[in-house]
């Protein structure tokens, strides 16, 4: 399904953008001789704005969570943070519609990030065997209606999304592992890999039919970087320092991108928080994008001969001589994916250095402004495009400086390295990004330089972005990082835990359970069950753990001790009842409990987890952290050496110690 | 260093094998006309046997653990099982020498498996900053002198080995993760990846110098499958069922290989256990290999024209007409790596089907016999070669059957698929093997078929090999698998644990500690420390865990309570003292404790782990298993609900429940 969605997006964008370019091109050609090109400009701007308006309206008014690439949200989901509505069917529909509109509308965005989100939604939906939005239950896959199982499926879906977007199944697996999985499970990984492979295969198969060559399964991925041929694929030892310099440059530019964007985000949170303002901003950006493009095409005098084997789809003559085309127009009259490919593969001499320089600056500004708009869009492709442009420029300049022309003959190589550097500087991924880029270029030879470049970009970028203050107005997300913070080694569970804890007895009064669950100030999700009712307010001995959701199901089915005898003939509460209620457990307010029933008792013994993980009070924070991370815990009971409950550690308690480190994550979340 | 070792092995094998082939070739050419080719045969057999004898002598008499590929040993090491001498410097030296001899000796073996072992030894050695074999301590990296840190390094080393062997850095990372890591750590993975990349790069760089094209870094890996060109790389939907059939065939043949080898292993354990017998068997195999090759060349009448662009290094005319060469001779007068490459890439029509069929049968028999000899050698390349041969045959037969010649034009594709199927059927790896093969061919297009084929081969192979009885005479290895066995869900920690446990008091008599440690019948490595001395033999409350190695260091330094006051001026025992003793802690017998000292007391409070992981008795086995796997535990204390120690779960306790599932692992270990 992910592959099919990718295929659909690809074809829709191709068609819509094709019609648009054709219309604008004919219009320009018509008015080039007549004079009055401003009419063409207006046509272009209006077309762009119209597309973007549609997409932005859907996102802003129908499903704001569908804005942006969705990658930060999926990261949080895989990390164990619950974000409402992120894997709903409605989100998927709006996302797909939105991304088609924003790419067709000519914004400086890509369609790859949203694919990852789409894959995740598909996986979360299919694995449950029902859709709560559509109110349809297929009565299958009931086993998977649990948080952990669903998370596994979402990792596979995200991997399939990466795989479809970049034709990078292995990169997809690594992306999922890098972002989500904490416990490496061989079988799960293998399944994720299988999902990724099937996704690439499906996309490939249907695109091959679309392109009229059915069954030729050799062009993977939405973005096709084109194959670097084996003869030209080589680099030399002395080029490595150059690559590292480019990596550092990418880190600096990436940090600049993030910093400007950070201020923009704060501005947006303060002043542009109403949906109609957001739509208007998106339309404005679309119009400005068209204007800037037009101006650059208009003032550019970079004419290139129209070769026999020319692959440009919309060559625009404009003021060039006959048999030539305007090369700036090519850069803009293309989906960004195609432009990246041209920058990688066009033979030396295709681009004028000045054109490239101006293009880099303009596109950088547009991309910064665009990122964070209320539209569905990714930042991968614009980053790659900016990087490819200045990378190619770098390569051309090198060949000017060097005496021997032949060594630096291939500016396409530098375009690739520049693209990697810029992308790395902006998103700061390393492992999975290396593999994704290697797979997307279909070539392992550049693996080592790409890795060096991404590492340099990350180090340099982190230097600038660190120590940034928190974004005002954004609630903190309990995001757990890989390692406990280095300052935490002297802290113990005692300092970290929440205390006192609300506990229940094995056999508890219904009234008290309802009161505790209704108490909005605490809002806990896990409650230790203790064995002895202690008179003097001393904590009791731990004997289990029960979840809010379980209690709610119990209350709903009125599983009270007093009724047990009278309802012997009725069926017992089964695992199925818990699964059916997943994932939208009713709020406690919706469950009616009469005054009589409040006096009944509930026996929790049968339903609680009888052996929850516990730690003594003296356990160090890194050890607690490791338990949470390795076992995917949400609650950890802290006991004294008599096994009495003294506290409870939750994700929030742990995440508090990561203040200031999750800046980038927060920035990306704030933009949605 | 791993890259350098790989480079050295490659060059040494190339040179030695080159001299050998040249000598034999000249001799054959000389006697072809004279008659008396038996002299050539004898020369060949003697040369082979001499090489193999050298390698086998070194392995059998100096370091038997260096036999085989070393992969099962590294797997066990990464799993947490201690195997003596597996990461010593001496093992490395013997291994490298042994593998050069066995490959140069013309055995049906590869040099790739041993590279993985070599990488692991290098990593284990370098990370410790000293060599106990050479009695040299560089006083660096003392932080890494711990089991967990060393294991991390060994995973990186193994990955670097895979990377150097196959030019597959990502495959290397996945190999390490698949075999070793249980807790996925992003930073560690990134470091492993870095090690892999550097290893490929180094190998590449030095080989490029050796080949006279310094700095051209485009041929990765020891084995170079050659690049599949983009034009010819494609497959069609209707070929997928064929691929799956080939996968099943590979599974059957792989199972056959393993079953025959299993009987051979039992035979060897029973009758060929003396080193000199082992050396003689190895020499016999070498001579037979030469004879079989010679016979096949002699009786083959498959002559191929000697083209202009012919790349065969040792074309042998023998009885062919002028301007032609004997194609069977080509298959044998080559290192197996080159033969695989020829099978993948030679144009259609290069091989005669009968030649291929006979070759497959002969090589299969030789490889089965060879695998498990007392020589350093891997099974990857022979498997690939067998598979490539029958795969190509399959492709040729297809093109006979099909009416339209052009579709099936490329038998090289089928050779690749056959190679994957055969290798998958023998070694039963899936995820990492897919990635390794994809990287080694430098092409992602065949990723999906390769994955399908490996999966089919594994499923079919597992069908035959399952239920195999255990190997007699092999002690069981406490190897922990990924998941708890499915039958274990009704077992709890109470049934699994060892009980009663030997516990120590916080302040314990030295005499008792010495007695417990000297008691060879128990031989425990971890001891719970309990708080109260209980009079009536009741278990005490848990308050810590101390290891045998720690107790030995304490005894060695005589850290007794009675001496504390008198030795105030002396320095306290520090972490460094524990690290310096790692990894070869002296046995308890070597520590002299006088009768007086036996009466002293030792305070363990300061040195024990104060918050060991504990579980209640009722914890289910899968939950215990998950804790062991996720946290890399070796001991887990089982307590009752008063926190009193009632038992201890060790790896051995858990591994008992996997009886019968680790057959393949055991087989491979038995062969060393």
TrEMBL record, chains A, B:
It is found in: Membrane. GO terms for molecular function: chloride channel activity; chloride:proton antiporter activity. It holds the Pfam family CBS. It is a multi-pass membrane protein. Residues 608-666 form the CBS domain. One of its GO terms (cellular component) is lysosomal membrane. InterPro entries: CBS_dom, CBS_dom_sf, CIC-7, Cl-channel/antiporter, Cl-channel_core, ClC. Gene3D superfamilies: CBS-domain, Clc chloride channel. CDD domains: CBS_pair_voltage-gated_CLC_euk_bac, ClC_6_like. The chain crosses the membrane at residues 41-62, 92-110, 153-176, 188-210, 240-264, 276-299, 354-373, 379-402, 414-438, 444-465. Keywords: CBS domain, Chloride, Ion transport, Membrane, Repeat, Transmembrane, Transmembrane helix, Transport. The keyword Transcription does not apply. Belongs to the chloride channel (TC 2.A.49) family. This is Chloride channel protein. It comes from Cyprinus carpio (Common carp).
